[in-house]
Structure formats: C-alpha cells, structure tokens
From TrEMBL:
Superkingdom, taxonomy of origin: Bacteria
Lineage: Bacteria, Bacillati, Bacillota, Bacilli, Lactobacillales
Protein name per its UniProtKB record: Histidine triad protein
Coiled coil: none
InterPro entries xref list: HINT (IPR039384), Histidine_triad_CS (IPR019808), Histidine_triad_HIT (IPR001310), HIT-like (IPR011146), HIT-like_sf (IPR036265)
Sequence motif Histidine triad motif, location on chain: 98-102
Domain HIT: 5-115
Gene3D superfamilies: HIT-like (3.30.428.10)
SUPFAM superfamilies: HIT-like
Pfam families, sorted: HIT
Length: 144
C-alpha cells in the first residue's frame, strides 16, 4: 500500500530496528518502546487488521510469535513476563492500519503499561451468556 508506514518499513524506504525477517513476516522494535524490547510483528502482505486475515496469513504470522518471544526472553533474562497485544480498528486503539502484533516485555508491575479488564460477571445471566455463545458459534460454523 502506497501510504502505509509499515509497508515502507518492509520495503526499507523508512529505517527500522529489525529483529527478525523471513519471506512472510517482518519484526522490528516499536519506536515508542513501552518497555525495553517492545517489538512489532507484522505480515509482509498488507492487511489492515485481523478481519482481513485468511488461514494461511494467520499461520504465517502467529507461528513466528513464539520464536520471537523466546528470543526476547533469552536476550533479556530479567524479563518477568510478556504481553501480546493486537489492536483492531480505531475504537480498539489501532493507530497504524497495517495489522501488527505488539510483544511487550514486562520487567515488573511498575512498568508503564497496563491493561484493564473490568469485572462484569454480574452483568449477564447464564441464559444471556449462553445466547451470546450460541450467536458466536453459529457464525463460526457459517464461516468455515
């Protein structure tokens, strides 16, 4: 895509701090470095978000993530954990519309990064939960 910053990085039109590359995937340091080693993993094929993936593209990208995660763990033995984050669409905080996965090393609970999952167990009855599950299952089956 012509105006995509990540496509320009893949094509070496814009410099990056590459940590991994093969024929399908490119991984490089995020310039924001939420924590040391914060890495972005992107498909070389331009897709805006997860909703544009086919099964092969998902396989190509997501099978590389454990390899890169282990490399981070080995490179930074002081790392205590890792967040894997994938934002899709603007409302979900996606700001670059070339699909990418953040690997964010965690060194302590004091890192300047957080995810908040509110507790909403009381908001739905068992019947409502089952109806939601059924609705999703129906769509999974129709998309096979």
């Amino acid at each position: 895509m012509e105006d995509c910053i990540f496509c320009k990085i893949i094509n070496q039109e814009i410099p990056s701090y590459k940590v991994y590359e093969d024929e399908k995937v490119y991984a490089f340091l995020d310039i924001t470095q939420v924590t040391k080693g914060h890495t972005l993993v992107i498909p070389k094929k331009h897709v805006s978000d997860i909703f544009e993936y086919d099964e092969q593209l998902a396989t190509d990208l997501f099978t590389r993530i454990p390899k890169i995660a282990r490399a981070l763990e080995t490179a930074f033995p002081e790392m205590e954990g890792l967040n894997i984050v994938n934002n899709n669409k603007e409302v979900a905080y996606q700001t670059v519309f070339h699909s990418h996965v953040h690997l964010i090393p965690r060194y302590s609970k004091k890192d300047d990064f957080s995810l908040h999952f509110g507790k909403h167990m009381e908001d739905y009855t068992q019947e409502q939960m089952q109806a939601i599950a059924n609705q999703i299952q129906k769509q999974v089956k129709s998309n096979e």
